[in-house]
Amino acid sequence: EDQVTQSPEALRLQEGESSSLNCSYTVSGLRGLFWYRQDPGKGPEFLFTLYSAGEEKEKERLKATLTKKESFLHITAPKPEDSATYLCAVQASGGSYIPTFGRGTSLIVHP
Amino acid sequence: GAVVSQHPSRVICKSGTSVKIECRSLDFQATTMFWYRQFPKKSLMLMATSNEGSKATYEQGVEKDKFLINHASLTLSTLTVTSAHPEDSSFYICSARGRDIGGTEAFFGQGTRLTVV
């Protein structure tokens, strides 16, 4: 069974204080690993897809990396507007495209 | 690109009535749509997966007669909550993936807050 574990569950940072969110996964064969951002009362917003170990993707202050066992979402010099819940999901290779989601990391960035 | 529009964003209905939620892919053909339910401060709970032109596949424990899903076209899926009860109050979110948008990721709608009174 595919599993996704995100840590920490919650993270408080000061504005400008860089940090990383972790997503550990077990999957029979990885088709893709996804990162989403979710604001309260909204649907998740797609950020990145990573397909293979060693791959990295960046968008503004966010950088996602992937190994064979985990992914990190690095947040450089965060701003209060980066406050949100960040969700990680994996999609196994094979016929189904159903993603398995982690519980998310709730990030609060204080000004 | 890859915009998914979900309506309504909020709905209040009386106990015993039915409510329909629409999910549309605006700029791509959605070969697969997913319907989720999310409880406060919890992650997404997959309810069902629907592929265009075929019946939805429901997750274990989800009543298919209560949560009717229709995926009649490549751009529209609907979720109808039938005979709604207060315990059906929740945040419902759809997502869609398609064949012509590059990757295998799914894109989410804005969500629908359902309150049954």
Task: Describe the largest sheet of chain B.
Answer: 7 strands, mixed
H/E series of chain A, N to C?
A: EEEEEEEEEEE
The number of distinct β-strands of chain B equals 11
As residue ranges, the low-confidence spans of chain A are none
Report strand % of chain A.
Answer: over 45%
Radius of gyration of chain B: 13 Å
Low-confidence stretches of chain B: none
Helix share, percent of chain B: under 10%
Net shape of chain B: globular
Order of helices and strands of chain B: EEEEEEEEEEE
Shape of chain A: globular
* Alpha-beta classification of chain A: mainly beta
What count of helical segments of chain A does DSSP give?
0
Describe this structure in words.
The complex is a heterodimer of chains A (111) and B (117). By secondary structure, chain A is mainly beta. Helices cover 0% and strands 59% of the residues of chain A. Chain A has no helices and 11 strands. In chain A, strands 2, 4, 5, 9, 10 and 11 form a 6-stranded mixed sheet that branches. A 5-stranded antiparallel sheet of chain A has the order 1-3-8-7-6, with no helix packed on it. Chain A is globular and about 45 Å long. By secondary structure, chain B is mostly beta strands. In chain B, a hairpin with a 2-residue loop joins strand 7 and strand 8. Chain B is globular and about 40 Å long. The interface between A and B is medium-sized, with 22 and 26 residues.
Short descriptors:
heterodimer, A: mainly beta, 6-stranded mixed beta sheet, 11 strands, B: mainly beta, 4-stranded antiparallel beta sheet, 0% helix, globular
Topology:
The complex is a heterodimer of chains A (111) and B (117).
Chain A: E1 3-7, E2 10-14, E3 19-26, E4 30-38, E5 45-50, E6 56-59, E7 62-66, E8 70-75, E9 84-92, E10 99-101, E11 105-110
Parallel strand pairs in A: 2-11
Antiparallel strand pairs in A: 1-3, 3-8, 4-5, 4-9, 6-7, 7-8, 9-10, 9-11
Chain B: E1 4-7, E2 10-13, E3 19-25, E4 30-38, E5 44-51, E6 57-58, E7 67-73, E8 76-81, E9 90-98, E10 107-108, E11 112-116
Parallel strand pairs in B: 2-11
Antiparallel strand pairs in B: 1-3, 3-8, 4-5, 4-9, 5-6, 7-8, 9-10, 9-11
